[in-house]
Amino acid sequence: MRIAPALALAAALGVTAGGAQAQVTNNEIKIGILSDMSSLYTDLAGAGSVLAARMAVEDSGITGRGFKVDFVSADHQNKADVGSNIARQWYDRDGVDLIVDVPNSAVALAVNTVTREKNKVFLVSGAATSALTGAQCSPNTIHWTYDTWALANGTGNAIVKTGGDSWFFLTADYAFGHQLEADTEAVVVKQGGKMLGKVRHPLNTQDFSSFLLQAQASKAKIIGLANAGGDTVNSVKQAAEFGIVGKGQNLAGLLIFLTDVHGLGLPTAQGLIFTETFYWDANDQSRAFAKRFSERNKGIHPTMVHAGVYSSVVHYLKAVEALKADGDGAAVVRQMKATPTDDPLFGKGSVRADGRKIHPAYLYEVKKPSESTKPWDYYKLRATIPAEEAFRPLKDGGCALAN
Predict the structure, then answer these.
(1) Which of 118, 324, 385, 398 could make a disulfide contact with 361, Cβ separation 3.0–4.6 Å?
(2) Three-class DSSP category at 103
(3) 220: closest CA among 165, 155, 170?
(4) Is the full-model pTM beyond 0.70?
């Protein structure tokens, strides 16, 4: 008797109960890591996100239970058309079931649209725009790690409440910067602060001198940096060269990553206040992960983006294993929303109807050099923002799925 190919495969893999992979597309789960591999966000995401996804699969043990998992990765070059074309090719030709990371909001919004059209799954760790769980929410997308609303309410609230009530924005001129500026401005004004001006700079610019001079001339108490990665590093370094802080103004890094602080060095970065949702030295579990991660990543410790990739892939694999299927992306996302989240990096949490992953956020301050006792020991905790307060209320986002 001839054995059907699907049954032969199941037998070869030792799969029971009718075949765990019977409804898994092409008999494998294929994960695409779409990131910045060569530009200003490569340190905070990039190859580290590929490693985080691989570690998630390894730690899940799913391959030992009869599932095959494969990976592809690509550089979106911080261009929405490049990112969407890669996503379309991956879904149409290469059998990719899931795209993760995407540290650029314009690219993420484009991939969000393609993913919904193709009924696949998109787990966002690197991009920040809160539109992903607002007007552009999708039944195929989960926004995992952080967003502009959380950054604005964490950092913006804290700074206004401690006297930083006049602001000037230095903003990256694309979707992420615009949204972060808007969300933070709303918080500042609500708390009684005022806006004295704003200037937009090109993505990945090297010269911030003219922008910083405008910020300095405004005499605002706070210069809000609505940018990220290399742009944040360069703007902070050049602000130090201008002596801006020494003349009475302060910088608010609205999105700071561990790798940014490492690149700046503690003498320059000390005193920066910012919001994050993961820090490698927070507890024993995060330290254990960081040790394994850094040993495979040239000593570089994980950022919250890397942690979000790991955590989101772990939860995705749980959903696919429960369904024994990955072909219907919206069904997988529904399963992810129905299942409480629990992993060693973010602990227990949940995914809301709008696709917002819910967990605590933390207000950190960069340590003085004298306070750091070991490599990558850069943060001290100022406040914990409870999960129920860390992200925009469901009713306020304008997401159709919330109804």
Answers:
(1) 385
(2) coil
(3) 165
(4) yes
Residue 201 · residue 241 · CB < 8 Å: no
Residue 67: helix, strand or coil by DSSP? coil
Torsion of CA 216, 221, 223, 226, to 10 degrees: -150
Q: Which domain holds residue 38?
A: 22-146+282-359
> Contact at 8 Å (CB) between 176 and 160?
no
Residues 315-370 have pLDDT tens digits of 999 999 999 999 999 999 999 999 999 999 999 999 999 999 999 999 999 999 99
Q: Are residues 227 and 371 in the same domain?
A: yes
Query: What's 278's DSSP letter?
Result: -
Q: Is residue 15 in some structural domain? A: no
Nearest Cα to 124, choosing from 328, 258, 305? 305
Residues 372 and 347 in one domain: no
User: Which DSSP category does 229 fall into?
Assistant: T
Range list of β-strands (E), 271-353:
273-276, 341-343, 347-351
pLDDT digits (tens, 9 = 90+) for 89-146: 999 999 999 999 999 999 999 999 999 999 999 999 999 999 999 999 999 999 999 9
> Reduced to 3 states, what is the DSSP secondary structure of residue 248?
coil
- CATH code for the domain in which residue 312 is found: 3.40.50.2300
Phi and psi angles of residue 227, each rounded to the nearest 5 degrees, phi first: -145, -175
